[in-house]
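YM 10:42: GL25 protein sequence, as discussed on the call
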Amino acid sequence: VFLLFFTTHEELQTLDVDDAFFSTPEDIAARALKPQGGVNFIRTFKKQAEDQAVNLPPNLDELVQNATYVQSPDNLVWQYFYNLKGSAEHPFPGGIFQWARYRRNTTGLNETEKIFSESLNKHENTLTLATLRIFSNGLGQPHFHFNANEMGYVISGCGQAGVILSGVTANFNIGIGDVIFFPVGTQHYLKSVCDEDLLLILAYSTGNQLETLRMNSYFHGTADHILAQLFFKKQDEFQKFPKPAK
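YM 10:58: structure's back
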């Protein structure tokens, strides 16, 4: 079972090998592929009623005798592959992130991680991927992303999501199999409300380093005399807010 994300807001356009083959005039296919038997061999191929990208033939064992693959070298594999589950965990108050992403600062990355990071950044329309685990009753605090839309899929647990914008606040429950979407610049939060952890896989529409601003960061980054004017509270009261951890 695969969970797939595609970088398009248009209707997804896909061309499978068999669709391309049967859409090609038989004489053109014969001249391009040059099979034994020429165009007569091409005519022995029959288009199936079902989409073969989805449905495997019932006699697959008879059709395929050898389906082994030789492992490619690491410098090729890690341009297209990343062991997210086995990667470093990045804890925060309330949960854990694991990331498949581009990082400008490669300090601490091993060679295969560097290959994957650089590969993501070479392509204009790519994705940053993450798993997010929020512990039972934990909170992923309000934040927004400057440079990416965000989509997520709930793998386990249950929770509450919220969108906080000027004049607009939306709160809704999320559970296994649900998909969430937060457009770029949309402040949002996630909260676990079950006895078990809330686990999601998240995709961000950027191959650059993800830029995120969290509520505690921008609140603490605002001068306390400005906050005093905004909230009609004494300036020294804002010293009660702790500095966010790095």
